[in-house]
Write a structure and sequence with these properties.
The protein is α/β, with parallel strands linked by helices. The chain contains nine helices and eight strands. The strands form two sheets. Strands 4, 5, 6, 7 and 8 form a five-stranded mixed beta sheet that branches. Strands 2-1-3 form a three-stranded mixed beta sheet. Helix 1 runs antiparallel to helix 2, helix 1 runs parallel beside helix 7 and helix 5 runs antiparallel to helix 6. The longest helix has 26 residues. 39% of the residues are buried. The model has no long low-confidence stretch (mean pLDDT 94).
């Protein structure tokens, strides 16, 4: 049993590396692709024959090969799993596949952060743009922290305090582990820390602005704007488009200046929506 659990953990790590590489293709300069590819190859070599065969077959169709089991359902396609299979996924003695989408299933950790935001009421006007996954309550216009971890904690605590996401501590821990793999800082003072596998609802994004800026990573990258996201596995592909849209919007100095000038969450939210109205739909 422990051996198969270990294999499933390897598969989850492998998927995270592959999705990290996909993000780097979209927004990076390509300098880390070789090291990411080497890490991916090393993990594939550690897989046993059966899990490796499943992985290779699924990877040809979609880079999302693993799906969390959430409330007895496949976290990617939403298929309700038979009670007997739910138990098998929890025991992790064999690789279990979703009968609908074909992905390999794994059990969500008990203390994993979850999206707990209330779903829109029936008849409520359909949201557009960034309002689909963010809100004024998640705008921090003057970050107090001056380190990557302290800033991520401010944003995670804002998410938890306003009941968008549970377990701020687990969010911070997972986000910092993701930063170890590859820094999410980019040019123009932007950084995109995130945690994947935050199930229970839709993507959630908080924005923090550091007026003075701070050193984000070991390369000395200086950051002023931090876009922190909690991402359900099923929307990983959308997150790539979101990153591209945010990068495009805030490559423009006038849009960055709008964020820096904001002195209240309401002003920051208004500036955020205005800057992204054409790049995020």
């Amino acid at each position: 049993m422990e051996s198969m659990k270990h294999q499933i953990n390897l598969l989850c790590q492998l998927q995270e590396l592959i999705l990290t590489r996909d993000e780097h293709h979209h927004t990076g300069d390509g300098t880390h692709l070789d090291s990411l590819n080497d890490s991916i190859d090393a993990l594939v070599d550690k897989l046993e024959p059966q899990p490796k065969t499943f992985y290779q077959r699924l990877y040809k169709k979609d880079h999302l090969v693993m799906s969390p089991m959430v409330d007895g359902c496949c976290g990617v396609c939403g298929m309700r799993l038979p009670v007997s299979q739910v138990q098998q996924v929890r025991l992790a003695r064999t690789v279990q596949m979703c009968s609908s989408c074909g992905r390999m299933l794994y059990d969500e950790e008990q203390d994993a952060p979850r999206v707990i935001a209330e779903k829109p009421a029936r008849g409520e006007p359909r949201k557009t743009g960034v309002s689909r996954f963010s809100a004024e309550e998640l705008m921090v216009c003057d970050l107090k922290g001056d380190t990557t971890e302290s800033v991520i904690r401010e944003l995670a605590e804002a998410m938890a305090a306003h009941r968008f996401v549970s377990n701020a501590d687990a969010l911070v821990k997972a986000a910092m582990e993701r930063e170890i793999v590859l820094s999410t800082a980019m040019g123009d003072g932007l950084a995109f820390p995130h945690v994947r596998g935050v199930e229970g609802g839709g993507l959630t994004l908080a924005l923090g602005v550091s007026k003075k800026g701070f050193v984000y990573d070991d390369d000395g990258t200086r950051v002023h704007f931090v876009f922190f996201s909690a991402i359900p596995v099923a929307v990983s592909a959308f997150y790539l488009r979101l990153m591209s849209g945010l990068s495009e919007a805030f490559a423009k100095k006038e849009n960055r200046d709008l964020l820096l000038k904001a002195t209240t969450p309401a002003e920051l939210w208004k500036s955020f929506m205005k800057a992204t109205r054409y790049t995020i739909r």
